[in-house]
Amino acid sequence: MQLAIVLFDRLTALDAVGPYEILSRIPGIETVFVAERTGPVRTDTGALALTADKTFAEVPRPDIVLVPGGPGQTPQMDNPVLLDWLRTADETSTWTTSVCTGSLLLAEAGLLKGRKATSHWLALNFIRRYEVEPTAERVVFDGKYVTAAGVSSGIDMGLALAGRIAGDRAAQSVQLLTEYDPQPPYDCGAPHKAPADLVAEYRANTRHPQD
């Protein structure tokens, strides 16, 4: 089973690396990082680069497609090379997945029309314009399409998908070995839990229209 993780300039690192750390540990998985061109791809901070070992053209039929998000997602919304590859890969994929605003790229490619999906909380209203039903759930399964909310939720998505692919015990083993037992010092990881003024500040400055 081949897992293709999409890379593009200014993606958010954890969107790709979180699910990678989970899904790549499933026995029999081959993981490949793909992009329009091979070589290093800078993440949104500019301090870290991930390496694309293959081009989209070299990976036409992955079993699992994983699309991260991040600030660099916006300019990719009119990139025909990426969007055409997503449509082609989706024709034969077993699972087509996204993390954070990666779901907007799936929506732009026409893959989520009429389906339920999630995204980063700042992008949920925006995704409606693609005839997608937004939901604030952390991980959403709709057929073979699996979308995760913002950034860290990609780890949860990876575990949920690992359970579907390899069974509960295999997914539990990965969770144990990665010691994924989150105990954050703040309970502020969702807009309904965060201070209202903090939520309002980010809504006022987001790149995604809120109406």
Automatic annotation (TrEMBL):
InterPro entries: Class_I_gatase-like, DJ-1/PfpI, INH-QAR
Domain of life, source organism: Bacteria
Domain DJ-1/PfpI: residue ranges: 3-161
Matching Pfam families: DJ-1_PfpI (PF01965)
SUPFAM superfamilies: Class I glutamine amidotransferase-like
Protein name from the UniProt record: DJ-1/PfpI family protein
